[in-house]
What does this fold into?
Amino acid sequence: MAIKKENVSRRDFLKKSSMFAGGVVFVSLLNPFKVVYATKKPKGKGKWYGIAIDIEKCIGCGSCARACKTENNVPNEPFFFRNWVEQYTITNDEQVMVSSPNGGIDGFKQAVPDEDIYKTFFVPKMCNHCAKSPCTQVCPVGASFESPEGLALVDQNYCIGCGYCVQACPYGCRYIDPAKGVVDKCTLCYHRLQKDLDPACMMACPTGARIYGDLNDRDSAVSLFIKEYNCAVLKPQLNTDSKLYYYALSQEVH
Amino acid sequence: MPLQVKRLLIVFAILIGTMFALKYFLTPESWREFGPYRGNALKEIAAQEAKYIDTKTCAMCHDLIAELKNNGEHNSIQCENCHGPGYKHIDDQENNEMKIPKGREFCIRCHARNAARPLNIIKQIDATEHNIGEDCITCHNPHQPWL
Amino acid sequence: MNKLQNLYEALANVEGYIYPNEIALNWDLLIVMYPYITGLVAGAFILASLNRVFDIKALRPTYEISLLTALSFMLVATMPLISHLGQPFRFYEMLITPHLTSAMAIFGFVYIWYLMVVLLLEIWFDYRYDMVIWSEQKKGFMKFFYKALTLWVSDKSPESRKTDDKIGYFITVIGIPSAFLLHGYVGFIFGSLKANPWWSSVMMPVIFLFSAMVSGIALVMFIYMVINFIRRKKNDILCLDTIAKYLFYILILDFTLESLDQIHRIYEADESFDILKLLVHGKLFFTFFIMQIGVGTIFPLAVLGFFQFKQPSEKIRKILYLIVSSAVLIGIFFMRWNVVIGGQLFSKSFYGFTSYKVDLIGGKDVWLSLLWFIIPFFILAFLLWLLPPWKKAKHVEG
It folds into this structure.
């Protein structure tokens, strides 16, 4: 072949590129393993909200999802939810079936006859308001952010609608509002909290399955609940530091 | 320094200068007030109107019904859970009537038998057998079902 | 409300269980085009630097073509992203207030670095002398235009040309890691999302990089042959053979890396494996096994591999090079498709699938994607008219 190799220029290239690579390594050594989470828990005595859900008390009435849609002007179509309820059914032959018809707003119909059911339960879902939230981490413009109270919020007047946070949320809690072209998600009714009102879903729950409060306050309802009951979070392997604690969570729930 | 490099440096200086100028003029106010986001966004989100008031507010006018409800099995349910949000109704009752749900469908959202519903928490009926065709409210007072 | 109708259709086609917000597939064909076009840029540039830095003389006829191809695609590389945004006119926020922990925000700067510092500068230094000559030959507006392009530097001395060459070489050396960075970075945008097991992989930037090189080299090969056909010039067969050889090597590397990624997944078989297996064997069967692996990898590997041992006549080789380069381009497109669309077809609950149907008639994303793929060819035609590589003065060794 007529390919001539000139060793001088190659050596030159290798030298230069290794200098470049060395520079990169040096810079990263100066600041080793700096965490790149978007937020850090603020020091001090401010509020730090957390949520607990008692699965054993959930009756799957969908009041929370309904109240949330009304309170927050969430589009009516069954593709946009800040808050929804899932029913898990595990049959005797170990099949796991999940359903959430219209987010549970219109009620549930059990398709499996009772005698075939091994185990069945409802799981209400909403934003986990993670302390190390993967969604706010990836927002390119800082329109998704974690408020000083530990709530993952969206600045809809600044959001560009790229959808990166929708992809980054492991729990499917974000959607793009088709009319506004921006992302929307649960705020734990930030506007109500600021007016000393309970979030709509917490208010609507008839059985007290939902609890929220200040995790910094060791005597708040949520702190006491987590202390008394052995709670778990969803997808703990992803290290999102979710602040939505479930009591009686089955391992089938993702 | 060769002439072409000098000229290029001028061009790059202009470009970088423009970039900084744009950054200066386009960065929104209250940026980085609390973190890398608009601090004003918190106020804007907080300014959203709350639609659900609470049972205490309802009871200021509807005290008898509220008392009836609070003494019955439905005491843990907020008025607006069934009647819809009351934020308009409190200011102008005539033009903003509350919902009064009456059908079977409404009640069985909670009370239909479902294996996932814990029996110790909610009473359930088999909607396909229990007094078919009748509205629940002919026998049960929704504010106190066993009255 | 065409979009909502599509969503209701998707809802009817959900298999198993999917989080309600996942029915809307947010990243559509436009986001498939984004890594595809960026990859073509990086690949074309790498081919140019093979000639310049590694001094592979047989590739000389494609040097300027690769650079101009890279530039034309680079100019539109961000357009699919921007036109996909829910609020396209807010895109500037990404540069004004970049959120430093976001991979996507930093991409804006990687893009600007690569476009301004690497591509434009390298082309400028390569053409500066010629633009001075052309500005002297032309009249009227074109004279002014070329003069403006040279930044009113009319130095034609051999020393200045040597300076151009030296700086150009230096930029190419910087350009190689930059091109790696550019496309590795696109891979990182996907690979860094821990929420999505189909994307989340350390291999992602490397795989994106090598598939980018494959696609860029195939594109330049294709364009080189088309240009010669239009100009009724003979293809330099040695050049084509050399490109084909490098295409073959890098394709092997690319295939190895991709296989490694898949083998690793299959052997590790973590919690997401069951759903990914169903995905690959079901919804992605055609695009993954037939298009990406069959058409895009096995077929070109077979043909190019055969040529390394036995060379049929020039005519047959040329025809096959044309076919192979198109096949590689199609294959890499489907590779991007499988990553972007495939990653959104399964639910993060691991219990089911949604569906995505390309709406050929009236689909906004399809028309825009086609537009963003065709415009670079017009830009390239313009650039070739403005800066014809075949009218360049002879190279001066630095």
Remarks:
- Residues 26-95+175-340+358-389 of chain C form one domain.
- Chain C is about 70% helix and 0% strand.
